[in-house]
Structure formats: structure tokens, C-alpha cells
Amino acid sequence: MSRKRWLALIAALMLVVAAVGVNVATSQAGSDFEQMFGASEHGWAERVIEQGEDTGGSIVVLELNGVIQDTGDAVSIFDAQGYRHKAFLSQIEHAAKDSSVEGIIIRVNTPGGGVVESAEIHEKILEAKEEYNTPIYISMGSMAASGGYYIAAPADKIVASPQTITGSLGVIMESINIAELAENYGITFNTIKSGEYKDIMSATREMTDGDREILQSLIDESYDEFVRIISEGRDMSESEVRQLADGRIYSGTQALELDLVDELGSLDDTVSMMKADLGADYSVIKYEADTGLFNLFSMSMSQLLTSNNELAGLEQLLTERRAPTLKYLYTE
Fold first, then answer.
1. Which residues belong to the signal peptide in this entry (predicted)?
2. What pTM did the predictor assign?
3. Interior CA angle at 269 toward 282 and 257, to 5°?
4. How many domains does the chain have?
5. Residues 265-288: pLDDT tens digits?
């Protein structure tokens, strides 16, 4: 980095340290001050985005943006405030348990993600509906594919934009094979393993028929579960779902024709639909990332360092899980 960038980095670090000091020193000064400068109890804040005439309840809007994967929710100075799995699960649970919340709208913008993570969100949605009797609507943004549709399937109503990319119903597992490339450079690999399939999907050897059979069985198992979720959520037969779930993508308009969504419209339209269905003009509350002083400095540092390709690449290398996993994911 240049001298100016180093100086900027040092200055930003000093500001973060100062912010932490202020946050600690004033932790007892009162809840209003803490709300302005510190982190909230949950890690997110509630903000009224639309004031309703009926003060007896509220509608909560939750946002799911980015790939659905559990990265530990660790907050780093490099963090771009992307999807945080544990925080999102707790938001659904918090809204469902709040007796003043009359309905939940989940705004979905995702190509999908991990099979396990998608299933965990699905379970939280079912819990909110069945245990707390909270209606849940899905508002699809530009993309709600694969795992994004998996979590939408049990909702009481799914609303998509005509231009939404959805579908991609299915399961995928990918790896790379660098054996031939390594051979060209004279690189050899020494693998000592306890069983024939211990290095299954290794990047350093060709996949065998036995490997493929084992992995296909895993894919088929997860695919069957995906089909079941859609069948139950959309009240369709499994044969109907399998005809649609061949991995292709659909526009929102096409999805409406295929009964994969219920209505076409925007997030505002979805809010209006829920108000009409509930029969009351409730206020609309949005759960959003906390904007405490420490977080603001963290975000500033993230922006400062984003332009450095080496640091960004190192961060990705250190945090990305390299092992192949089952995914409900649309890949271009």
C-alpha cells in the first residue's frame, strides 16, 4: 500500500480504538446514548418505516440478502455487512415471539446457499406460523432462486416482481480438478488415507464411478427433501414439482403461471396486501443492522480496505470454506 493509505489505515484504527473507549466509558450513561453510540442487545435495530393508523400491532420486514451460508457471524473490520445467518434466524424468532407483531414479511434477494442453512430458516418460518400463528409473506427481489425458493415455499403468500429470477429448484455440489494442471508443472501429491473414499471429491485426482455414485445418492436425498418442501408448501403433487424442478430458472411472470408464486408486485405491494388481509393499517417496522459508533467505524474501514485487492483476496482465502458442500444454489 502507498504511504497515504497506510496513514489513513492508522488514523482509522485510532478512531476505532477511541470509539471503543467512548462506548465502554458511557455504557452506564443511559439507554438513549447507548442506542446512538453502542451496539444494541440483538445486533440489530428496529426502525419504523411506515406509520400506520392502527397502533394495536405492527408488521415486521426482514431482509435476506446474499448467499445463505453460515460464516459464524463474526464481525470483522473487513466485513461488508452481508448475510449473517445466526442473526437472521434470531430475527425471525424474535418477531414471532413478539405479541405485538401481527405479520412478518421476508424480503428475499439471494441465489440460495447451503442445504443445512436453508433448512434452518425453513424450520424457523414453520415455527413462526404453527407455534405463534404469525402469517408470513415472502417478497422476492431481483433474485430468489434455489435455496431462496426453498425458504419461501411454506409462506402464506409469495409475491414476486415480473422480472424476479426464481426457480433453479434442485441441489448442486461442485469441486475442481487440478491434477492435469499440476502434472504439467511437475507437481505430485502424496495422499495417505484410511479408506478408499476418504479423499472423495479431492481436487488432486479424477473422480471414480464409486465416488460419483456416493455423491449422487447425497444429491438425490437432498433433492427429494426439496421436492417434499415445495409439494407441501404449494399444495402440489410431487410429480408436478419434479416436472418444474429440473434446475431451470423462471421469471416472476412464469412462476406465477406455474403456481410457484401467488402474486406479482413490489415490497410495497406486499405490505399493502398483508395490511388488507389482516384488515388493519398497522405500522411497518424493519429490523436492520445496528448503526452504533463502533459499527460505523468498522464499515468505514471496510470501505477503506476494499480497494486493496491483496487484502480482500487474503480475507476471502481465510474465511471461505474450501470443502465441497451440498447447496441449494443457483450458479451462473
1. 1-29
2. 0.79
3. 135
4. 1
5. 999 999 999 999 999 999 999 998
